[in-house]
Amino acid sequence: MEIGIVGLPNVGKSTLFNAITKAGAECANYPFCTIEPNVGIVSVPDERLDFLSKIEKPQKVIPATIKFVDIAGLTKGASKGEGLGNKFLSHIREVDAILNVVRCFEDSNIVHVEGSIDPIRDVEIITLELILADMEVIERRLQKTSKLARNDKKAAFEVEVLEKIKKGLDEGKPVRALQFTEEEKSFVSQLMLLTSKPVMYVANISEEDLISGEENQYVKQLKEYAEKENSQVLVISAKIEEELASLSDEERNELLREYGLAEPGLNNIIRHGYSLLGLITFFTAGPKEVHAWTIKKGTKAPQAAGKIHSDFEKGFIRAEVISYEDLVKAGSQAAAREMGLMRLEGKDYVMQDGDVVVFRFNV
Hints:
The protein has about 375 residues and is of the alpha/beta class. The chain contains 15 helices and 13 strands. It has helices at about 15-25, 45-55, 85-95, 120-145, 155-170, 180-190, 205-210, 215-230, 240-245, 250-260, 265-275, 300-310, 310-315, 325-330, 335-340, and strands at about 1-5, 35, 40-45, 60, 65-70, 95-105, 200-205, 230-235, 280-285, 290-295, 315-320, 345, 355-360. The strands form three sheets. The chain has a seven-stranded mixed sheet with strand order 2-3-5-1-6-7-8, with helices on both faces. Strands 4-10-9 form a three-stranded mixed sheet, sandwiched between helices. The two termini are about 30 Å apart.
């Protein structure tokens, strides 16, 4: 699962990515991994791993991870191939969700590509380019499908949905802001449209605004905009996050106290990104290893077992499940079993976030 970091030039996108990669580099259990110059994998902060490690005392701990892609900066005309437009669009097609970094601070030393600070304009520049790219896809599909619609019910249904999307795009609405039935959603997902991808906005503010704790006018504007499309806005100072990520644990904690922060803002971004992708975590825990496994929400037990090994799914018998909350109450897996808090679940069990599981299988 990948999240693409996008934004106009000079909004703090690269600074944020640098902070994310530095944070990953300091993770002892899952070191930052550079797959390409602009791709990084970082661990998902999860306090539950600390508790499981405490009670199991394992040889190693493996957290859940998420991949961030630093996508080339975008300018007007990207949908027509202007600047790095073609590269931008090809990269963004490959990610599962978008993290849009928006400049919400004044600084005369950092020139804004559009000449002034206006978060809504900046967001709409990127959204418009994606809409224009999607419009090309829809129009091509309509030309092809309309010819079949007279004698084909499936084609007629597709034309109806395509016209609905086209109308929304014409009005400047991203596909994610449109309403669809379950049947329509299934078809829309096949189109792989850029504006159908879930989006999270990051308002990049100054150090002074972070210290004051008060939202500036730009953050307020961005939140009002995001609310209309049911997207979230997270507020951080990318400059401070980059500094925090480069410090030792002790130095970082001291600086966090100075700023009055409970944790780095990056932790919040990573967790929200994980949630944005519709992901949950289950755990396997023992003296050899405590492991956080990533699955899509709604995954059933056999498929979750298959994340560990394909044989687990093929020969699935049952899952022995203890919820994380019950495990905390009991204090150990053995105590949870004695207290009757362990459940035996079959093939139709839908995994829940925080399940601590032992899979039984026979191949």
